[in-house]
Every structure is written in C-alpha cells, then in structure tokens.
Design brief:
This protein is an all-alpha fold. The protein has one domain. It contains three helices and no strands. The chain is elongated and about 70 Å long. The termini are far apart.
C-alpha cells in the first residue's frame, strides 16, 4: 500500500466525518432556535392572559439564540477542516465574524435586559 493512497483515504474519512459533525451541530442550533422561539411565544401568551410581566421574554429568547449561535459557530470551526480553497476560507471567515458579532450583541442585550428587570423585581418585592 502506497502512503499517498493511505493519505487520500484518510483525508476522505476526515472530510466525511467533518461534514457529519457540521450538519449535526447546525441541526442542533436550528432546534435550539425553534424550541427557544416556541418557549418565548408561550411566555408571551401567558403574560397576555395573566397580565403578569414577571417572565422576561427577551432574556429567554436571547439566551436560546446565543446558545444556538454557539453551536453554529462550532459547526463553522469544524467546517474549516473541509475548506478546499482561499475563496471558501474567506467566506467562512466572514460568516464566523458575523456570527461572533451577533453573539456579542445578543449577550449585551441579555445583560442590559437583566439590568432593567432587576429594579422592577425589587419594586414588586417591596
């Protein structure tokens, strides 16, 4: 067996496993967005029916979106294994940068919403 044949075969295995992992992580991210959205809609309806404003929908949805983005960024990192040319790498870098920026913005939004909710809860407790 030639070493070149071994490397080609091994490369094919790595490529196939990486694709499976990428699609699995992408699917998990999508499921998290769907579940988080359904949960946020449920909280919205509960708030409308009971006129209770204690459940913070923005924080709940933001946490789900942030978690989903983490899985999707993990998929993009694994995707770097199967990139074949510089054009694909450039596109991948832009996608990762956009997702990282979105994750930062979502975390900032969650933090600010938490600060806004703290005084409301404190007034309700008094």
């Amino acid at each position: 067996m030639n070493i070149s044949n071994f490397i080609d075969g091994y490369s094919g295995i790595v490529h196939n496993v990486a694709e499976i992992v990428v699609y699995t992580l992408e699917l998990i991210g999508i499921l998290i967005v769907v579940i988080g959205s359904v949960n946020a809609i449920t909280l919205l309806f509960k708030n409308l029916i009971s006129k209770n404003k204690n459940n913070n929908i923005v924080i709940s949805l933001g946490k789900a979106l942030a978690l989903a983005l983490e899985f999707k960024m993990g998929a993009e990192i694994i995707n770097t294994v199967i990139v074949r040319n510089m054009a694909e790498l450039g596109i991948l870098a832009i996608v990762v940068a956009i997702r990282a920026l979105l994750a930062i913005l979502i975390h900032w939004e969650i933090k600010n919403e938490g600060k806004l909710e703290a005084p409301k809860k404190q007034k309700e407790d008094e």
